[in-house]
Amino acid sequence: MVAKKRKTATESEATTAVATTSKANEEVNFPRGGASALTPVEYREISNKVASDLFSTSEQKSEDEPAKKKLKADKKKKTKSTAATAAAQSKDKKKRVVINELSFKKLTVGTLLLGSISRINDLELVVALPHQLVGTVAITDISETMSAYVEKVANQNEDEEETLSLPDLHSLFHVGQWVRCRITTLQDRTNKLVKKRIELSMKPEVVNADLHKLDVVPGTALSASVDSVEDHGYVLSLGVKGLTGFCKSVDAKSFIESRGGNELMPGQIVECVVRAKPGSKRTVEVELKDTGLENDSITEPFSRITSVTPGQLVTGTIEEVVSTGLTVKLMGLYETTVDASHLPLSGDINKQYSVGAKINYRILYCILNTEQKTIAGSVLPHILSLSSPVLNKGEASAYPGITFPTGSFLDVRVVRITHSGVNVSIPALQNVTGFVHISRLADEHIKSVSGSSGKFQIGSEHRARVLGYNPTDAIFQLTLQPSILNEKYMSIDDVQVGSMVVCTALKLVASGLLVNVTKKIVGLVPTHHLSDVHLTHPETKFKSGMNLKARVLLAEDGERRRVILTLKNSLTKTDLPIITSLEQAKVGEATHGVIVSIKKAGCIIGFFNNVTAFAPASEMTETTTQALDTIFRIGQTVKVNFIDVNLEAKKLIVSCINTKRTTKKKEVVAPSTDVLKPGEKTTAQVKECKRTQVNITLPNGMEGRVHLTEMFKSIDEIKNRKHPTRSLHLTELEVRVLGLRDVKLHTYLPISNTSRVKQTIDCSLLEESHAPRFVSTRNQLRVSIGGHLSGIIRKQHTSSNIATANSFEKHFIIGEAIEVAALFVNVAKSIIELIHVDSPSTPTTLDYDTIEGKVVQGCVRTIDPVRGLLVQLTSQLAGKVCLTDLSDKYIENPTQHFKEGDVLQCAVVGVDANKKRIALSLRHSLVSPETATTVENKEIKTTDDLKADDVVYGYVENISDSGVFLQYGRHVNARVKIANLSDAFIKEWKSIFTTGQLVKSKLLSVEADKKVEASLKQSVVEGTPVAAKKSKKTKVVSEQVTKEAEDNDSDEDEIMKEAEKDDSEEDDSEEDEDEDEEEVEVEDEDEEMEDASEEETPVLAVSGFDWTGQAAAKLEAESDSEEEAEEQKSKKKNKKSAVEDKTAELSTTAPQVASDYERLLVGSPNSSYLWINYMAYQLQLSEIAKAREIGERALKTISFREEQEKLNVWVAMLNLENNFGSEDTLNELFKRALAYCEPKKIYLQLIKIYERSDKHDKADALWIEATKKFSQSSKVWTLYGLFCLQRNEVEKARELFQKSLKSLPKHKHIKTISKFALMEFKHGEPERGRTIFEGLMSSHPKRVDLWSVYLDMEIRADDQGLIRRLFERVTSLKFSSKKMKFFFKKWLQYERENGSEDDVERVKEKALSYVENKSTSSL
Q1: How far apart are CA 1130 and CA 1124, in angstroms?
Q2: What is the torsion angle, in degrees rounded to the nearest 10, for the CA atoms of residue 1317, residue 1322, residue 1325 and residue 1326?
Q3: pLDDT single digits (tens) 629-671
Q4: Out of 284, 365, 716, 796, which could bridge 857 as a Cys pair, Cβ 3.0 to 4.6 Å?
Q5: Is the separation of the CB atoms in 1174 and 1157 below 8 Å?
Q6: Nearest-CA neighbor of 1330 among 1342, 1344, 1316, 1340?
């Protein structure tokens, strides 16, 4: 009924519009009679007179009448009078030539316009009209045939079997399509809520109602609708009274192909050109065309002005050229205009066009129902050809509105100034222009614009942003306002669902909170998304103008145009995946959702972008409840897991619980019919085809199934192995009954009927079951080998291709048919282990008897840096890979490149069936001997492969009291005696070796009983003499294996060598712009983040000390080197006294009693280490007072020059008072320490003591005091920020960052900013740290140290895409060759450790390219 009423109203308005324009026809229409009695000449004269009357004014008539009375005057007077009259007429005519742009105020109901479709909605078309106007065409105003069909759809009953659907406008029309239309309704803006609206009609009966049959001549372009499809062509409705169009199928073929090959549908609007005069016929032959219309022009004059319709290509004579456009006489009869905006911007109008010249143009719009009639045209190329503008020569035509959507940036040049704005050209594009309204030139108000001076004078260039595109005018609506140029979002399409946005609160409404995402985009936060808890008074929390951080739930830029956001902390701060589409949902994945509806059977859970899922009541809670709304509420955030994802049905099932429910006793639902006997054959109806089975209905009414394993005799019969059931297109199947089985009955009451089951019949399509195997689950590769029998394929057996096996989840789908072989069967445990036979070389049996010598695949189970890898081959077989068998080339820490779960190819090199041991090797020379290259470290199988004096690499296998044992092979070991470990004397030699360490050794002897002796001495291995140097303290010299870095760096060294030569002069003269600023250290970016190494002080504790005394002696010797030198001098003087000093043992034995400490302190009175250990000794005896006395003694005894030693004692005493004293004693000691030591160090040490003792409140208070006292110290600010970040006080740390920059001097800003960025990377949000670094690098792009720190942080974050882009970016900057070498080396090292060989080669190529460019530029 609604559609019918709308249709009636529309037809009434259209009829009124047509009737208004038809008044000019009333005098020439005859009710009956033959053809006109006038001759063609008389007809032309009358037509000229009519046109003259239509376009004349009252003043002209008054001037013409007295001309007759002047005939009696003399000839001279007559001449003067005639000349004066002509001059007056000419002057009046020039005054009358006013060409204005079309505006909404000038439009009238009945106006005809040529437009272009700019957007297609479900129920309407949005049409771009001339001069940047926009109208809409409802689906009922497209054609009469379509209106009738829409009315039929609206009136259909729900009970009808065949349901009709509305026509799809997207398939009938396309954006950029040219259409003719007539205005049926004009709705002016009466208030802020009602917008201006132009309603149009495209019906040919409305658009062409005033076109007379006589004016339908060859070349006339018309819009028509398809009435019907006939055998040989299409019957078209032209809208001309008494005339119908017909297009042959042959002539329409090219038109259909240009539209994508879609056949024409009844009701569809098409563009056609008349090919012959209709004469007295009722049918005229036409041709469908949408291209090449620039050649179809009308040469014959129209019989009446109302026959002039938009879209007609005509020829006229220029009568007047003014700055606002042209006045053109159409066919010598009608005055028309061409506005300046529809003239090309290529040159000056006065120079380009001249009076009297002929011009081809296309009618743009006609306003014929007003006193002053207006016909306007256009000479723009795209309108002449009725096509989309070609943006660039040589490129395919594309719709500019799609190529440059709203929000795009363009560089423009001012070419014309008008009273309403500025016309601009776009140098980068052709055939399109731009227009900037005067209100869009700047944020402030501009009254007028000058073309000769000022910011927007002709020729000035600007950066503009696209607000829209009008395809009819081929004009971009642009803005130059800085506020909009800096806007992040220009349209709702730019707002990404799931992203975080900062918005401003506007006001609270009944549905929620309105917020401003931008000045033009308003969003809504629904009531139940304001907070995780229900807010009874939200007005107290949200104030107008406050800034909020929200996450986008929904962004629709269609007809509804809305943005929905959430302020729930559970959604804005979630770490779980954000689901914005059905495809993102994965079974087993957890995420957060919001309850949007509560029903008896369960709850509807909502996610982002209107994605919803169903949570059954049994999956909502483990407790039994009759009403879910008593436990849950709408708007509550819940954490759910996806348990079923059906993309075809667009259904998601989720669960809020993870526990398994106990199974109740099954209640069998007995069938109502007799059960078929096993072995019986029958015909069944196919009910449903699933991935792993076909559900059927048997003749007795029972349901059954045919499993995939019972469908095909062999895998060769399956055409589509990925989807085997797709090949079944039958409705009936001949099946063989196998037997009955019980299946769970899925009812609508899952809580009370969890144990109900029903019976189903298993059937087969085979005479005997010997079918291929099918994958039936995704969680693990479980393969069905029968209707009720399945086996498991382990990861390493899923494919013979290593890459496929490591990511087997991506290469197999449920229901896929594969060929397998059984490796192991355990009947007792019902376990079948299978292997995928995907190549002829795949082994089908793996046991101790047959495995030796084979190359098999295994999965890494455990990794031991000393012993190697343990690799799982099958459930019964596992093998070991020694360190020497991991590669053909020995490297340091060879196990670091392996991960547990990796699938590897292994060569079986040894089997001991009795001990159930298998030796494996990963050497490329054994796994793939056909592609192996030179082996750098050969395999040593037995001692026969060794001989004395050989230099051999090996790994440290064991460290014992008798020496170090090396591993050369699986069964070959060597011993290195203590005397052969080093050329230097090493007292604690065990500390310089670690198990698994790679060493280079030389064989001393190889005995027959497999005993091998080796040496690690550098003089023996390298053959170099030992330097003769005697010293009491000898440095440890241990030979390490030569790193690969020297070889690896040789390539880039050669590449950069030439660049260094070319850039030597540049290095000498180059001065860094930030040279005077404080450098950020590259070596250790975390320096001073945890504890300052230079201020590290032993922490006083009661237990856990090294009582051997060696550490004390070591510290004493290092800190008291001067006294030791003096002692040695005195010993040289007293060589004659050979008295043995027993107290010397105290330096190597642990002190046992207080007297031992006293003796040690006599020799080293300045050693804080001894004093602190002495205090700890007293604390172990609970002698707190004595510990204090010892501390006071230490402060008095230690020399005033030893500031660090005194500081250590002060810190130890602070620890003592913190643990065993009171707050008063601690404060008193703290004040004393401030007087004797550097205050900042004491503050920092006491803060650390508070932190270690979990007194965070006191630490925070002391931090605040320290920042006030040492506000000029970058170290204090950064350490305080680290303290806040470690306690998850992120906002507080960021406030400190801002405060520090206000307090610190400018030369410390870079250091502080970089350290706060590092802390964000490590303890806060890496993205924020990245943003801080980006701001720092934009201000200081020449700081190599900052770039290096930035790169190190990104490498730690381990985002390879970001890291590579950052390397690309830094190597594209202009640095000296030495600095570029540093960056290329760093990049190359990263790619060698984390990338592939191709990545390494790419870096080398870039470095080589840099060198070549430098060489070329130097020439």
Answers
A1: 10
A2: 70
A3: 888 889 999 999 999 999 888 899 999 886 334 333 334 344 4
A4: 796
A5: yes
A6: 1316
